[in-house]
């Protein structure tokens, strides 16, 4: 496998806040270096359910993860396993739920927080954080620049074909301050500014890059339901592929087959949604 792609998931950003507050991402759209579409999450639009659907390409009604309290090793084929079947190397910098879904469960703090397993059938290089103790007054989130740097380190050391990064910072801030607040405006600005220097660096390393969220959040900091603010987010693509019309809405189940198509990896039979990049 000679193609490379990174998926960057900024947890809990509604479509309207991506489009009005992320000036660097929007600047690349205006310059023609990126394209952007609306991206609609599965239902329930809760984090763990969305994580599972993004990588398996099936709905929660199929994979069975009904929410954050129901995390287990998924049985479906997923992006990591399909990239491995195609001969690629995978890496993840993310919340521990991702390790439980796609590597092994339950999460062991010592064994699973950091590992390099070249023979793994799913994630070869994992760097995870648990956010244990998370609450309203203490988000327990790592610095995002540290996460971006960690992914870049893995790309450079192990020549990942597929790497994914997930950060909960904005989701946690949204639950605490709600998305229509001065605190949230600043948090989105900081995230955009931290992320921006890494995108040209990743592109120079040969990666296509997708930046999106797992779901949105409404005016009360909630998600899980069917309201557009909870379910709809944006998806930015940096790469050479042709995409759909500007007003098309991407179904979350399309991400897995799209990523695999771009990498030249086999798409699992269970992934029924069509790829949105050609």
Descriptive overview:
This protein has 278 residues and is an alpha/beta fold. The protein has a single domain (5-263), classed as Alkaline Phosphatase, subunit A, CATH 3.40.720. The protein has 13 helices and nine strands. The protein has helices at residues 15-21, 23-31, 47-56, 60-63, 79-85, 96-102, 109-112, 144-158, 169-177, 182-195, 198-204, 228-231, 255-263, and strands spanning 5-10, 35-40, 90-95, 114-116, 125-129, 162-167, 208-212, 232-238, 249-251. It has a nine-stranded mixed beta sheet with strand order 4-5-3-6-1-7-8-2-9, with helices on both faces. Helix 9 (169-177) runs antiparallel to helix 10. The chain is globular.
Q: CATH class, anyone?
A: Alpha Beta
Q: Tell me the number of structural domains.
A: 1
CATH superfamily: Alkaline Phosphatase, subunit A
Task: Please bin the fraction of helical residues.
Answer: 25-40%
Mean pLDDT across the residues is 97
Q: CA-to-CA gap between the ends?
A: 18 Å
CATH topology: Alkaline Phosphatase, subunit A
Task: State the total count of DSSP E strands.
Answer: 9
Strand arrangement, largest sheet?
4-5-3-6-1-7-8-2-9
Strand content: 15-25%
* Weakly predicted, low-confidence segments: none
Indicate the overall shape.
globular
Corresponding CATH architecture: 3-Layer(aba) Sandwich
Order of helices and strands: EHHEHHHEHHEEHEHHHEHEEH
Largest sheet, described in full?
Answer: 9 strands, mixed
SS-based class: alpha/beta
Separate helix tally: 13
Taking all Cα atoms into account, the compactness measure Rg is 17 Å
């Amino acid at each position: 496998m000679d193609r490379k792609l990174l998926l960057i998931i900024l947890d809990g950003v509604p479509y309207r806040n991506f489009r009005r507050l992320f000036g660097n991402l929007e600047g690349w759209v205006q310059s023609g270096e990126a394209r952007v579409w609306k991206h609609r999450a599965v239902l329930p639009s809760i984090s763990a359910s969305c994580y599972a659907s993004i990588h398996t390409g099936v709905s929660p009604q199929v994979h069975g993860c009904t929410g954050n309290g129901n995390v287990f090793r998924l049985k479906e084929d997923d992006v990591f396993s399909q990239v491995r079947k195609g001969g690629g190397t995978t890496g993840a910098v993310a919340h521990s739920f991702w390790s439980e879904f796609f590597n092994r469960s339950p999460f062991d703090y010592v064994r699973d927080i950091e590992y390099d397993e070249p023979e793994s059938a799913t994630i070869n290089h994992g760097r995870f954080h648990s956010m244990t103790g998370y609450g309203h007054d203490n988000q327990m989130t790592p610095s995002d620049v540290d996460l971006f740097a960690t992914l870049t380190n893995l790309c450079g050391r192990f020549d990942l074909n597929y790497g994914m990064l997930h950060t909960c910072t904005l989701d946690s801030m949204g639950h605490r301050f709600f998305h229509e607040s001065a605190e949230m405006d600043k948090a989105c600005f900081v995230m955009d500014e931290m992320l921006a220097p890494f995108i040209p660096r990743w592109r120079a390393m040969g990666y296509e890059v997708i930046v999106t969220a797992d779901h949105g959040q409404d005016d009360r900091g909630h998600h899980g339901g069917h309201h557009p603010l909870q379910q709809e987010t944006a998806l930015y693509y940096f790469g050479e592929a042709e995409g759909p019309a500007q007003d098309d809405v991407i179904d979350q189940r399309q991400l897995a087959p799209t990523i695999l198509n771009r990498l030249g990896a086999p798409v699992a039979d269970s992934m029924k949604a069509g790829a949105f990049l050609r």
